[in-house]
Amino acid sequence: MLENIRVVLVNTSHPGNIGGAARAMKNMGLSQLVLVDPQDFPSADAVARASGASDVLDAAQVVGTLEEALVGCSLVLGTSARDRRIPWPLLDPRECGVAACEQAQQGAHVALVFGREYAGLTNEELQRCHFHVHIPSDPAFSSLNLAAAVQVLAYEVRMAWLAAENQPTKTPKLEATAIQSSQPVTADELESFYAHLEQALVEIKFLDPAKPRHLMSRLRRLYGRSEVSKLEMNILRGILTETIKAARGEHSEREKVDV
Amino acid sequence: MLENIRVVLVNTSHPGNIGGAARAMKNMGLSQLVLVDPQDFPSADAVARASGASDVLDAAQVVGTLEEALVGCSLVLGTSARDRRIPWPLLDPRECGVAACEQAQQGAHVALVFGREYAGLTNEELQRCHFHVHIPSDPAFSSLNLAAAVQVLAYEVRMAWLAAENQPTKTPKLEATAIQSSQPVTADELESFYAHLEQALVEIKFLDPAKPRHLMSRLRRLYGRSEVSKLEMNILRGILTETIKAARGEHSEREKVDV
User: Fold this and answer.
1) What is the DSSP-derived secondary structure letter of residue B185?
2) Which ranges carry the tRNA/rRNA methyltransferase SpoU type domain (chains A, B) (predicted)?
């Protein structure tokens, strides 16, 4: 599906940026790179900055015009730094990622178009785009590095793709026992813990049962919001057991020392 | 508000990446850069890649250890490429941006920590982080360029910031002292707590210094994600102090009873 989304770089000056863009694409699972009239390509600088993504560079299609780069595309999204005189439908990067994925999933081809390092896309080129995409940078310093701009849009495409694929982005593969011990404790387990904790605090004379004040409610608030796992609860209960033993002088070693 | 969020680069090899990171930060409205033991800085390569963001480089703080870089921070978010044996609370970049903004808006200081180009952060460094952040890259080609990773997280911080700016702030009005004591503790305060906790666990003989296993890292994970407030920390520290006294049989009342 992601192979339906191509990145189009128009008239790039610095081959290092082409390499950086290729790396950003491959990191995010994109592979289709089209270069419109690049000023210096192929180039060792591009390969160096691609850092392992030279397969994307090798497969890159080099064409003479934006028109050729967009052949077959039913959705064209063009990055734009500035507000233009002619208002155009404008997306932020997140909306761009969602739109690109929706189209690509239906089998359509999508182009993400990036302009020149210093001058961006011309008005004519921008008018070939169905939507403009603006990366919300600080107006006081708004021009992103080309590879950084590709990174942001490719990242949003991947986030939308992962959401659409319904693949959880964080899949820790755990053994059954690990899953069990990482499960949060139940309310009754938490109540037993609070009773044990209160007992220990009395034993170490931190809590005066005659003047309990807000102590237990504050500790309930802390542990209540922490989603304590079963494993962590075992540790906390173990600490309380040993604390009570220590307060009572019941440690075998301690007794030995005392004698 | 964004000035409460610092970017920490640990032991960076290539000064060009420091420059690229500075540019990405400034594009997204971030200005606080901290460099932990950079291999080559200051550097002309950094200035070249910063491309107009050399003010961020000039103001960068260079320190010797991660600990120094995190002084004053109550939320530390560390980028991690790999699944770890001990699972840690994991955020995606979007969740990271929201969490960083929420904290920064309450006046707390936040660190986004990035590791070495080839080796990332060490396990010890990762354990100093309250949350790990994973940029959901293609598992077949997962390692982002350092400046590109900074770009993605800085972009998500900005998106969260813009969303928050457009919403009325929902901060209940609290008394000055209540606000202060409900503020989360800083990373250095948390480190002192862990040292105190470890000492207490040894005193009550729950922790054998010769065989520490994963105990402290599991407790770090629990308290690290709980956003412990200053008031709660006072309670926890008080409990530890009394626990140690009890273990040593130093309680005045206990002595009285013993006599």
Assistant:
1) P
2) 5-155
Residues of chain B with CATH 3.40.1280.10: 2-165
At the top level of CATH, which class does the domain B2-165 belong to?
A: alpha beta
H or E element in which residue A112 lies: strand A109-114
Q: What is the DSSP letter of B86?
A: S
pLDDT tens profile B198-248: 999 999 999 999 998 889 999 998 998 888 999 999 999 999 999 999 999
Q: Counting Cβ atoms within 10 Å, is residue A130 exposed (0-12), middle (13-18) or buried (19+)?
A: middle
Tell me whether A81 touches chain B (CB under 8 Å): no
Whether the CB of A174 is below 8 Å from some CB of chain B: the reply is yes
Tell me the per-residue pLDDT of B93-136, one tens digit each, with 9 for 90 and over. 999 999 999 999 999 999 999 999 999 999 999 999 999 999 99
pLDDT band (50, 70, 90) for residue B86: low
Question: Binning pLDDT at 50, 70 and 90, where does residue B173 land?
Answer: very low
CB contact under 8 A, B144 and A27: yes
Residues of B in contact with A23 (CB under 8 A): 144-145, 148
SS3 B133: strand
Domain A176-258 has CATH 3.30.70.930: no
CATH 1.10.8.590 maps onto chain A at 176-258
pLDDT digits (tens, 9 = 90+) for B15-59: 999 999 999 999 999 999 999 999 999 999 999 999 999 999 999
Chain B residues lying within 8 Å of A158, measured CB to CB: 136-138
**Contact flag B201-A235 (C-beta cutoff 8 Å):** no
How close, in Å, is residue A239 to chain B by CA atoms?
6
First-residue to last-residue Cα distance in chain A: 76
| B134·A170 Cβ contact <8 A | yes
Distance from CA of A143 to the nearest CA of B (A): 7
Residues in B touching A57 (Cβ below 8 Å): none
pLDDT of residue B169: 44
**Residue ranges of E strands in chain B:** 5-10, 32-36, 61-63, 73-79, 90-91, 109-114, 131-133
Confirm or reject contact between A175 and chain B (CB < 8 A): no
3 state DSSP class of A81? coil
B194 in contact with chain A, both atoms CB, cutoff 8 A: no
| Edge-to-edge strand ranges of the sheet holding B109-114 | B61-63, B32-36, B5-10, B109-114, B73-79, B131-133, B90-91
Interface test with A, best of B83, B92, B117, B145 (most A CBs within 10 A): B145
> Cβ of B164 under 8 Å from any chain A Cβ?
no
Q: Is A147 on the interface with B (CB under 8 A)?
A: yes
Does ipTM top 0.85? Answer: no
